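hey all, quick one before standup. I had two proteins in the batch that finished overnight and I want to keep them in one place so we stop losing track of which output belongs to which input. First protein below, input sequence then structure tokens straight from the run.
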Amino acid sequence: MTDQIISPDSAAAWNNRGAIHWLRGSPDGALADFNRAIELDPRYADAWYNLGCARLGQKDFRAAIADFDQVIRINKKHAAAWNNRGAARIALGDAEDALADFDQAIYLDPYRASAWSNRGNIRYDKRDWDGAIADHSRAIELEPRLFESWNNRANARRAKGDLDGAIADYSRALELNPWYALCYANRGVARLMKGSINEAERDFDQCREIAGHLPPHIVQHINELKVR
């Protein structure tokens, strides 16, 4: 496939080449092409959106938010832009504005599983266990192979004291992604809480084998359980 732009005055052509650059692992080329598309057509929402996604992927969260702002100004019904702006805001610790973005994304596109999952994560952080479970359940209905939502629903169930339900959800997440190290650690905590010490240790060992170590918050949780 050639990198030559056949129609150098076509914003769509630059946007499309930018997408190819991104898929090939050339973020600088992608950013340059998306910016050129926008220079040619400042109201080209897809180019602004792609630019925002690229910056989100590079963890340039403030720039990503500015790009998604532009998308929303051009097209207020662009559910993906609302959802991704919320993700960028979460990364910057702005949970309240992120929650409003996820609410709007769900309103515009109630079949967008990632928006339900993202909102479920905020509700979990707010200790709204029932709200988190409901949102992740909806995400799972829409995308049954969304292993992160299985894990995150399990976290909320564990927090509520439903250890059997949590362990079942963690196990399903691991069926979908056997290399999900954090999920082994989470299931280990649930098993430890239930008193299944040997099974818990096997989960912790599996996490260490994949990731090289247990996450610090998991170690803290284990220590707290041992003190009780």
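OK second protein, same deal, sequence then tokens:
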Amino acid sequence: MKKTIILFAISLSLLSCSSDDRSPDSNLEVSYANLAGKWYYKEVIMGDGSIVPRVSSCPTTPDFIEFFSWGMVYAQNYYQDCTFMGGPNEEYYIFPGNRMETFGGDFPDCIVTKFTNEELHMQYEVDLAPGTETRTLILLRE
């Protein structure tokens, strides 16, 4: 009887355990709080499927985008000599369907297609003559 109770208790404890919602592979809700932090450029998936590494011009200081939980986003970019290039400091908004929008900047309207603790994929349109191309920017969290 004692063994049965112990086995039942162990089984119950295993069933009641849930996976960590913030594991590296789980998709997170696109929210201001979850986006907050520094995200470093990794690569861009072009419209034809080719992957282009997004390499910072400065060899010692990587470019990044920082999201703030109060709805501001800041892009920090550097020249080859590592002087600050500047970047937009603007408001961003989250809409249903994982759509994000800023006013101006590099990504005025994008869709978040993947969002984990470690990786953020932002799909956006680029105007090209005579049409547009869909690209995906991949960012990694600090």
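Flagging for whoever picks this up: Confidence is low (pLDDT under 50) at residues 1-22. The domain at 22-141 is CATH 2.40.128.280 (Lipocalin).
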